[in-house]
């Protein structure tokens, strides 16, 4: 029978393995780390458990689909619950606002809190849905780079020019067309960070992102986000996918324009096809040194990175829930610093994720597991040790101001993740969370395709290629790759 090699066991790598297995291939996954999952990993210390990276989970049906593909009831291995409160927002002026999953409740409460008409909110959400419906089949579900096979160039052009999509204005100016209250604009601007971009640069079409969260909902897997990795890994093992951990691929082998295997320190392995889940930039730099690189694509600005403090907190805070945002006073300045100055602003927005609110085993009784994150610039060799010290102070002060507490008094343990570690642990170029940023209106077209234009039988999946980063899009990339590959 035919065999396939997958390079990397990130969420897209595991999903590709499961899909190719279903197509009849013998599948081997090579993973550089001693563990699977890449960014979707876990941190454990002193009785606390934190999800290492992603914390926001929407469109869970895309995970379920992988179990169903193999005729397994997802609920036997993987469970999740829908959150009533999607996110709690805090501003320094004392405003607090909880986004409820129930859209009507959200609309009436937002109208009241932000002195806005319900009609504007409804129109905004309707437009978000329209944008999603117009773009999803073109941009998210198929290989954009084989567009000609299902869509004429003229249709694509008219779609892009459609004023409904707001491709030529920024997310911030799109949001300001609907809302005058700066807090509400900030709330909707934040969705730019879901793909690591700036709301002052990313196109207005990104206002479709709230539709995902508000329509499909916000979920927490039983056992935390890491349960996604664990259960899919188990499913893949059950389906006889082979995993070779601790075995980084050093080179992609090819002959006469056809990719046919990989080289690791242990030896050479040959296959009928390859799916590479490694960051595309690092792939060209490290595994395909002998191939001409597509510089136009690789030169794209990287998305933002993150600085995370995993804190064990020795008390509980009833004002907080699973997702909490403490907004900066000057959002524009925050993004100017991140993308232009490549540094932190003096007052960064602080995100606190606490899974122990729902998963009580994640922290000892009476304690909470705080995942405290600020957006970080991509790694350009900044003095991270100094930046981490300054940032920690700023974060502590902000939390103290907003919660009127002295948080350091309650810290019982700490771990830190910075852009350098993200880069070294996952090969993500410059430690970016989502591959290339979406700060250009052309970014969708400048992402690397899901296949190699130079080597036959070489495919790409994961957050650094089409359609983009984040769990749902990574899962989508695996689906696109598998659709491009014939049955074994
Ligand atoms: P990755 O997770 O990048 O994994 C790639 C794998 O390939 C790694 O395991 C790596 O070791 C392996 N590899 C690399 N090189 C080699 C080699 N040469 N040989 C063998 N193996 C190799 N997304 C969301 O949806 N919601 C969120 O809330 C969210 N928050 C995030 C917060 C943080 C801090 C981070 C880091 C990311 C976040 N993301 C979020 C983004 C999300 O984590 C990623 O888009 C997604 O997990 C990337 O998956 P991937 O398949 O591209 O592979």
From TrEMBL:
**What Pfam families does this protein map onto?**
Amino_oxidase
The UniProt record lists the keyword Oxidoreductase: yes
Question: Which GO BP terms sit in this record?
Answer: carotenoid biosynthetic process
Keywords in alphabetical order, please.
Answer: Carotenoid biosynthesis, Oxidoreductase
Q: Which family does it belong to?
A: Belongs to the carotenoid/retinoid oxidoreductase family.
Where does this protein act, in terms of pathway?
A: Carotenoid biosynthesis
- Which Gene3D superfamilies did the record assign? FAD/NAD(P)-binding domain
Q: Where is the Amine oxidase domain?
A: 11-485
Q: What is this protein called?
A: Phytoene desaturase
PANTHER family per the UniProt record, alphabetical: 4,4'-DIAPONEUROSPORENE OXYGENASE, PHYTOENE DESATURASE
Matches recorded under NCBIfam families: crtI_fam, hydcarot_desat_CrtD
Annotated Gene Ontology MF terms? oxidoreductase activity
């Amino acid at each position: 029978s035919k065999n396939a090699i997958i390079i990397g066991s990130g969420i897209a790598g595991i999903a590709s393995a499961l899909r190719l297995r279903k197509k009849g291939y013998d599948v081997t996954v090579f993973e550089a780390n001693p563990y699977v999952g890449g960014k979707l990993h876990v941190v454990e210390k002193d009785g606390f458990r934190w999800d290492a990276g992603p914390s926001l989970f929407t469109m869970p049906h895309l995970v379920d689909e992988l179990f169903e593909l193999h005729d397994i009831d997802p609920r036997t291995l993987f469970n999740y619950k829908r959150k009533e409160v999607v996110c709690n927002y805090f501003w320094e002026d004392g405003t607090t606002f909880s986004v409820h999953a129930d859209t009507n409740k959200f609309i009436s409460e937002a109208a009241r809190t932000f002195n806005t008409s319900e009609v504007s909110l409804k129109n905004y959400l309707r437009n978000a849905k329209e944008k999603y419906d117009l773009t999803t089949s073109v941009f998210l579900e198929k290989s954009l780079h084989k567009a000609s096979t299902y869509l004429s160039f003229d249709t694509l052009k008219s779609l892009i020019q459609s004023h409904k999509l707001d491709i030529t204005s920024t997310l911030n100016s799109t949001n300001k067309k609907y809302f005058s209250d700066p807090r509400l604009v900030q709330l909707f601007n934040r969705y730019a960070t879901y793909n690591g971009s700036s709301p002052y640069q990313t196109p207005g079409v990104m206002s479709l992102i709230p539709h995902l969260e508000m329509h499909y909902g916000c979920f927490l897997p039983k056992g935390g986000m890491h349960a996604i990795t664990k259960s899919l890994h188990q499913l893949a093992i059950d389906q006889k996918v082979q995993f070779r951990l601790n075995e980084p691929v050093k080179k992609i082998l090819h002959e006469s324009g056809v990719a046919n295997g990989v080289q690791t320190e242990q030896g050479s392995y040959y296959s009928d096809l390859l799916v590479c889940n490694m960051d595309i930039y690092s792939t060209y730099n490290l595994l395909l040194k002998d191939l001409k690189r597509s510089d136009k694509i690789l030169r794209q600005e990287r998305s933002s990175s993150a600085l995370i403090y995993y804190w064990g907190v020795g008390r509980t805070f009833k004002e907080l829930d699973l997702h909490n945002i403490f907004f900066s006073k000057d959002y524009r300045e925050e993004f100017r610093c991140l993308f232009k100055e490549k540094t932190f602003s003096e007052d960064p927005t602080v995100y606190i994720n606490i899974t122990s609110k729902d998963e009580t085993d994640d922290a000892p009784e009476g304690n909470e597991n705080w995942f405290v994150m600020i957006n970080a610039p991509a790694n350009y060799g900044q003095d991270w040790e100094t930046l981490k010290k300054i940032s920690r102070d700023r974060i502590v002060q902000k939390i103290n101001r907003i919660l009127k507490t002295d948080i350091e008094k309650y810290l019982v343990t700490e771990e830190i993740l910075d852009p350098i570690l993200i880069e070294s642990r996952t090969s993500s170029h410059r430690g970016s969370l989502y591959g290339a940023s979406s700060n250009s209106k052309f970014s969708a077209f400048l992402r690397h395709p899901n296949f190699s234009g130079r080597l036959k039988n070489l495919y790409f999946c994961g957050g650094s290629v089409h359609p983009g980063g984040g769990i749902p899009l990574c899962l989508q990339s695996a689906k696109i790759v598998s659709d491009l590959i014939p049955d074994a």
